[in-house]
C-alpha cells in the first residue's frame, strides 16, 4: 500500500496567471508533478514555459493562482524561499559571475548556514562531476568556459544542495548527443532517488525518451497533458502548434545541395594563435575554406577551441597576419569587427545576452547595433523610419513574437530572441555568415525557418560557416563537416561521405585519419 506522502503531489500549481502589459504569458495554468517524476513542459517559442518555471522558482510573481508544495499552500516569494523548499533551477541564460572560478560561483549559491569552505566545495564538485559525468574543472574561471560547460556548472550548483524538484529550462540545447545521453542518465539517476524534474525542451525526440508526463502550453494556456512516450513527434508538435498550422517536424529539408565548385568566399590559412588565458585553447594550424553557395559545419565538444576560433574569425581578436583570414581576395585578419562587417561578414555569436544583444536596449536599438551600415544612418543621424521598417522586416520574416519594437530585448522569450538575432544578421545579405549554435532554444517551426533561411542564403551564393555542438543540426544543414578538437581542425568531409561514428570518434579525440 502506498504511504500518504506518496499520494500527495510534490508540486501543484493551480490557476496561475501572469500578464505583461495586458498580454497573458500564463493564463489560468494548472500543473501537477509527482515525486520522482520527469515532467516535460512543452510549447512553441513564447508559449509561457520559462514564465511558469520562474514563477515556481520565485523569480516572477504571479498575479493570481496558488502553489501547493507537498500538499501545503506556499507563497514562493523569491528564489531563496524556493531553494529552502528544495527547488533548484537551471536557467536558459546562466547566472554566473564570469570572473570567479567554478568553485567560487557554486560556493556563493550555497546556504550561508551550512558554512562550506572553498576546499570542501571544490571536493564536492569533483565528486558530483564524476558521479554524474558532468565533466568540469572546479578551478576554471567561468569566463574561460563554453556555453555547454557553464550549463554543467549550473546543474552541479543545483545538485550541491539537496533538491526535491529540479527545474531545467532547455538543458540540452547546447549539448552533443553523447553529452545529452549522459545527462539523461544523470537525470534518471536523480529522479530514481525521489527528486522530481521539470524539463523544457524543443527537442521532441529527447522529451519522448526521457519524460513520462508532459504539460503542453499554447499562448500561455495549458492545452493538453499527455505521456510523451505514448505520442509521436508529429502528434506532440501538432499539440504545441495547433492542428491547422504547418509544423516542420525535425530535420525534413529534402535533398542536399551538391558540393559547389564556385569561388572560395572565405578562407583561413594556417592560423596559429596562442591562447592568452591559462585555461584557454590555442589554435593550431587552422585551415578551412567556405565556397560561395556552401554551408560548412564545425562540430566538436564544448571547450575545444570553438570560442577562440569564433573570436578570431569575427574580429573580436585580431590575427597575427592579415592574410591568415581572407574574405574573397581581401585579407581581413587585421580588420576589426566593424571593418569585417562592412566588407560583408555577418556573425551570430554563441552568447545571446551581452554579446549578440544588449538586454536593456529595445529591439530597434539592437537591430541598429549590427545593421547600421544598411542605410539606417545619414550624416551621423538615425533614420528612424528606415530603422523601424528594417526591424519590422526582421520580426515578420522570422516570426519574432514581441509586444512592440520599443520593448526591451530582455523581455523576449529565449527562442524569440534567437530568431531576432538570426534574422538581423541574415537580412544584411552577407557574403559570409558565421553562426554559432544558430537554432539554440528555438522551437521546431523556428528551427525549420532558420535552417531554410541559411539554405536560401546558400542558394543565392553566400557562404555559411556553422559552429555547433549539435551534431544533428550540422548533419541536417551542412554540405561539408569538420571537427575541432584541442584547437586543431580535422579534414572536412562532404556530407554524402560522412559517417556519424567517424565524426563522433573525432569529437572524442581519436586522431584525424
Ligand atoms: N519581463 C517581461 N516583460 C514583457 N514580456 C515578457 C517578459 N517575460 C516574458 N514575456 C513575454 O511572455 C511570453 C512568454 O515568454 P516565455 O519566456 O515564458 O516563453 P517560453 O515558452 O519560455 O519561450 P522560449 O521557448 O522561446 O524560451 C513571451 O511573449 C515573452 O515575450
From TrEMBL:
Keywords per UniProt: ATP-binding, Hydrolase, Nucleotide-binding
GO molecular function term, any single one: ATP hydrolysis activity
Keyword Cell wall biogenesis/degradation: no
InterPro entries in the record: AAA+_ATPase, ABC_carbohydrate_import_ATPase, ABC_transporter-like_ATP-bd, ABC_transporter-like_CS, P-loop_NTPase
Residues making up the signal peptide according to the UniProt record: none
Domain ABC transporter: 11-244, 266-511
EC number(s) from the headed UniProt entry: 3.6.3.17
Protein name: Monosaccharide-transporting ATPase
Species in which this protein is naturally found: Fischerella thermalis JSC-11
Amino acid at each position: 500500500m502506498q504511504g500518504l506522502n506518496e499520494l500527495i503531489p510534490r508540486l501543484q500549481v493551480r490557476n496561475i496567471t501572469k500578464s505583461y502589459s495586458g498580454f497573458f504569458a500564463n493564463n489560468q495554468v494548472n500543473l501537477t508533478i509527482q515525486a520522482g517524476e520527469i515532467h516535460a513542459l512543452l510549447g512553441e517559442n513564447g508559449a509561457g514555459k520559462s514564465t511558469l518555471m520562474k514563477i515556481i522558482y520565485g523569480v516572477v510573481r504571479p498575479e493570481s493562482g496558488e502553489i501547493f508544495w507537498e500538499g501545503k499552500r506556499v507563497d514562493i516569494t523569491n528564489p531563496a524561499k524556493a531553494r529552502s523548499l528544495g527547488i533548484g533551477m537551471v536557467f536558459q541564460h546562466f547566472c554566473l559571475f564570469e570572473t570567479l572560478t567554478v568553485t567560487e560561483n557554486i560556493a556563493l549559491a550555497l546556504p550561508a548556514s551550512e558554512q562550506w569552505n572553498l576546499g570542501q566545495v571544490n571536493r564536492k564538485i569533483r565528486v558530483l562531476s564524476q558521479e554524474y559525468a558532468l565533466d568540469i574543472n572546479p578551478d576554471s574561471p567561468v569566463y574561460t568556459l563554453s556555453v555547454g560547460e557553464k550549463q554543467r556548472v549550473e546543474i552541479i550548483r543545483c545538485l550541491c544542495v539537496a533538491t526535491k524538484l529540479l527545474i531545467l529550462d532547455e538543458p540540452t540545447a547546447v549539448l552533443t548527443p553523447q553529452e545529452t545521453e549522459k545527462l539523461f542518465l544523470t537525470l534518471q539517476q536523480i529522479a530514481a532517488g525521489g527528486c522530481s524534474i521539470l524539463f523544457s525542451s524543443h527537442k521532441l525526440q529527447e522529451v519522448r525518451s526521457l519524460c513520462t508526463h508532459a504539460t503542453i502550453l499554447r499562448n500561455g494556456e495549458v492545452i493538453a497533458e499527455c505521456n510523451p512516450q505514448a505520442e509521436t513527434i508529429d502528434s506532440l508538435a501538432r499539440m504545441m502548434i495547433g492542428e491547422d498550422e504547418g509544423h516542420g517536424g525535425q530535420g525534413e529539408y529534402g535533398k542536399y545541395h551538391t558540393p559547389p565548385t564556385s569561388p572560395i568566399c572565405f578562407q583561413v590559412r594556417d592560423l596559429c594563435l596562442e591562447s592568452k588565458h591559462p585555461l584557454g585553447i590555442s589554435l593550431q594550424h587552422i585551415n578551412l575554406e567556405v565556397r560561395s553557395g556552401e554551408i560548412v559545419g564545425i562540430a566538436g565538444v564544448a571547450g575545444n577551441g570553438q570560442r577562440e576560433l569564433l573570436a578570431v574569425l569575427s574580429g573580436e581578436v585580431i590575427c597575427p597576419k592579415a592574410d591568415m583570414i581572407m574574405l574573397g581576395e581581401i585579407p581581413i585578419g587585421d580588420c576589426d569587427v566593424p571593418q569585417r562587417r562592412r566588407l560583408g561578414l555577418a556573425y551570430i555569436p554563441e552568447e545571446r545576452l551581452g554579446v549578440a544583444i544588449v538586454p536593456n536596449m529595445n529591439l530597434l536599438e539592437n537591430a541598429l547595433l549590427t545593421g547600421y551600415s544598411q542605410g539606417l544612418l545619414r550624416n551621423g543621424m538615425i533614420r528612424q523610419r528606415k530603422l523601424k521598417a528594417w526591424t519590422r522586416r526582421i520580426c515578420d520574416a522570422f516570426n519574432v513574437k514581441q509586444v512592440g519594437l520599443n520593448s526591451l530585448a530582455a523581455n523576449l522569450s529565449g527562442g524569440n530572441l534567437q530568431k531576432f538575432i538570426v534574422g538581423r544578421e541574415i537580412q544584411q545579405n552577407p557574403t559570409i555568415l558565421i553562426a554559432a549554435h544558430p537554432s539554440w532554444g528555438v522551437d521546431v517551426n523556428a528551427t525549420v525557418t532558420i535552417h531554410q533561411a541559411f539554405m536560401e542564403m546558400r542558394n543565392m551564393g553566400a557562404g555559411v560557416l556553422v559552429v555547433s555542438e549539435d551534431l544533428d543540426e550540422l548533419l541536417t544543414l551542412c554540405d561539408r563537416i569538420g571537427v575541432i578538437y584541442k584547437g586543431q581542425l580535422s579534414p572536412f568531409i562532404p556530407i554524402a561521405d560522412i559517417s556519424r561514428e567517424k565524426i563522433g570518434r573525432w569529437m572524442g579525440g581519436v586522431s584525424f585519419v
